[in-house]
Amino acid sequence: MIKRSRGKGKKKVQEFDRAKEFMMAIDDLAKEKGIAPEVLFDAIEAALISAYRRNFGSEQNAHVQIDRETGEFHVYAHKTVVKDLTDPVMEMALSDAQAIDPDYEEGDVLEIEVTPANFGRIAAQTAKQVVVQRIREAERGNIYDEFSGRSSDIVTGTVQRVENRTVFIDLGRTEAVLTASEQIEGENYVYGDRVKAYILEVRRTSKGPQVSVSRTHPGLLKRLFELEVPEIYDGIVEIKSVAREPGMRSKIAVYSKDADVDPVGSCVGHKGMRVQAVVTELRNEKIDIVKWNEDPAHYIANALSPAKVVSVAVNEGEKASKVVVPDNQLSLAIGKEGQNARLAAKLTGWKIDIKSESQAAEEEPDESMSVVEVTGEESFSVEGDEV
């Protein structure tokens, strides 16, 4: 059992105003840095014991206690009461202990106050760096917790500097890193520019939390629509899928849980204002908004917008399809360098083989596929200042 000795103690922090000032400083610092006061008390206690051991007795089994109410601090050395003394640093002879208090017995652990008279001045000088470091670590922990919980979210910051094509974005409490591989091709970043980016990862490093962000991730497009379209934020309209070739063209498939709400119209907005805001943020990236359909044939036809589709043959087992379009729509369905067909395949998760009507007429029907006559549902495409 640990007992506190009533033996002679060293100087205490006796001035009430000084202790009150100390407690107010702790309270102000905790609020300013967003750190629990107990974390600061622990940091200061650790700093003080380090200072004590360095200046007054590194071998002693000592610890520091700060009174959480008054701000007074005390240094105590632990000594175990033994009958035969062998280690004066860690032990106290039974006879010496009983000279202090006759009730002490062998095996008791005494806390003997050893606070030096000039400890306050030396402790302040020695402990300052330790306290600052602990506060910095606590701040970093708070920042990490804040941003790690925002993974897959959007952040807005200001371009702080550009080094070897890596862009550093000031987020206020920390800095985000936008590497060259996560930048939209052709974008230029200038000091002071406001930038929205998608959080990829938050990692702990020796310099604090590192937030890695992206401007090319499909999640950025999804989050931007969530910001611009209240129906998506409220869960009425759902983004089912996103396919993106950053800086060039994207497709999103949307669905409404409410039959009275048009999902495509909700995303477009009045005079195209909602989708135009997203296009502007992505530096005039072309966006196709298509209606999701649980029927694969109709969904594939929608995904090939703005091309018109005559029929879609599907093999659900292999998730493969053959699409027939009017002769004059073939190049539009495929797109420049195959981009429209490629994005439609990414969006739906299906293999898509596109044929014109004349080409399809020359081929034998594939008996493994069921053919569905389709009419494309509502869709919307916008690029730059188009509405």
Q: Quote the average pLDDT.
A: 85
**Estimated radius of gyration:** 35 Å
The gross shape turns out to be elongated
Q: Which residue ranges are poorly predicted, with pLDDT under 50 across at least 5 consecutive positions?
A: 6-15
- Secondary-structure element pattern, one letter each: EHHEEEHEHEEEEEHHEEHHEHEEHHEHEE
Structural class: alpha/beta
The percent range for helix content is 25-40%
Sheet of most strands: 5 strands, mixed
Give the terminus-to-terminus CA distance. 80 Å
| Strand coverage percent | 25-35%
User: How many H/I helical runs?
Assistant: 12
Number of extended strands: 18
Topology at a glance:
Layout: E1 2-4, H1 16-33, H2 37-55, E2 62-66, E3 73-82, E4 91-93, H3 94-100, E5 109-113, H4 119-148, E6 154-163, E7 166-170, E8 175-178, E9 194-205, E10 208-214, H5 218-228, H6 230-233, E11 237-245, E12 249-256, H7 263-268, H8 273-281, E13 286-291, H9 296-303, E14 311-315, E15 320-325, H10 330-334, H11 339-348, E16 351-356, H12 357-361, E17 370-373, E18 379-382
Parallel strand pairs: 1-5, 3-4, 8-10, 12-13, 15-16
Antiparallel strand pairs: 2-3, 3-5, 6-7, 6-9, 7-8, 9-10, 11-12, 13-18, 14-15, 14-17
